[in-house]
Amino acid sequence: MHNLAFDIAHLLAGGLVLISFMMLYQDRLYALLNIFALHAVVLAASVAWQAFIQNAPHLYVTAAIALVFKAIVIPVALHRIIKRLGIHRDIETAVSIGPTMLAGMGLVALSMVLMLRVTGAADPLAREDLAFALSVVLLGLLVMVTRRNAVSQVVGFMSLENGLVLAATGAKGMPLVVEISVAFSILIAFIVIGVFLFRIRERFDTVDVGALDEFRGERR
Q1: What are phi and psi of 87, to 5 degrees?
Q2: Helix locations, the chain, DSSP H
Q3: Long-range contacts formed by 35-40: CB under 8 A, 24+ apart
């Protein structure tokens, strides 16, 4: 049973890393949002499995929050924002796909080497989850850095937070009040980001952050 629990947890956490690479590869906004929703579904499954093997019922609440808000509410809201703002649905990248994917593989390798050495005395299941979680966090940062579109940067931020949730649950969970506080903080941050997207679109007629750089250059 222990081996089965390890294998399934390993599969789900590794699936999150794979889906993070899928997000890095995408150059269409709607496809990126659909993949982010899949990312949240796999996160919810991973957290639910951790709740089962750790006998921690409060983690089921975390899984439900991830499933409802991140897999349904946020992707649907972003779809509507894109449609309402008439945002260009191709994602402009600061770096081409090939170098970005290579950088992503390097970050995953770095995460594995770093976490497996630092957590040598920890439980093997927690070590694997923490290594995968750090990979998801770094890949989320890479999405934010290499995408010029503000919506895709929001998705990168949300996927980064998924990695933090995976790390917290893999390390024997966190208090329920902290999980709920984090979930509502992310929801509030998403609402604020949505407001800023509308304001940026009204002011600059685009959500390409490169336009903001050009505007600042003109004002200097």
Answers
A1: -70, 140
A2: 2-25, 29-54, 58-65, 74-85, 97-118, 124-146, 150-170, 176-204, 209-219
A3: 36/70, 36/74, 36/75, 36/155, 36/158, 36/159, 37/70, 37/71, 37/72, 37/75, 38/71, 39/70, 39/159, 39/162, 40/66, 40/67, 40/70, 40/71, 40/74, 40/75, 40/162
Q: Is the pLDDT of residue 205 over 90?
A: no
Question: Range with the lowest mean pLDDT among 14-23, 29-38, 118-127, 147-156?
Answer: 118-127
User: What's the rounded Cα separation, in Å, for the pair 35 and 150?
Assistant: 17
pTM over 0.90? The answer is no
